[in-house]
Every structure is written in C-alpha cells, then in structure tokens.
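Researcher: Structure for this, please.
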Amino acid sequence: MNIPARYCAGYLGDIGVPRNPAPMDFSAWFEAYIGGKWYTFDARHNHPRIGRIVIARGRDAADVAISTAFGPTKVVRFNVMTEEVLVDDAVSLQPNGDASQQIAKRQRA
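Model: Predicted structure, token format:
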C-alpha cells in the first residue's frame, strides 16, 4: 500500500461525547498521509472525537514513550483538562501571537 503513517500517543478529551466520571487516560491512535494531508484513525474510538491532545508522534509505541523511568518513581500530580472553546472565544495560539494581549483586548471591549 505504501501509505506513510505515524503512531500518536496522548490524551483524548471528552468533548462531544457523554461524560464519563472516570478521569481521562492515555490514548493512542495513528495518522496516515493521504492525498497531501494527515488524517487521524482510531480503532478504539471508531468515530470522530474533539480535543485530542498529542503528546508525541513516532514510528511505534517505543518511539513515543510518555515516561521512561529507571528505578522507583513517584508521580505527585499530573492533570490534563479539555474544555470546548467557541470560535468567538478562541485565542490565537500562533507563535507570534500574544494571547495575554488578545484576552485583555476582549475584556476591555
């Protein structure tokens, strides 16, 4: 088939699906390069989802380990949260954009 693909690891938010009382967990999916664009495919959640937070991309799970520890470790705190943002409320996250200035400007308006 010769279709370029990559493994993705991250968090999958709960926007647009029934709320689950359990905390979010790590998730994995893959992306394939088809017709000049990367498309997301997810065998576990076989329907479109909003709020994917990509932590890493690579050839396989060994490439994108979220944590590699040698010896005992203790995670004190690790929180990830997704919230739906309406287009009118969105703040530019472009590298040259200053989000704090955009927010202050909207508050004055």
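Researcher: Any notable elements?
Model: The two ends are 54 Å apart (CA to CA). The chain has a mean pLDDT of 79.
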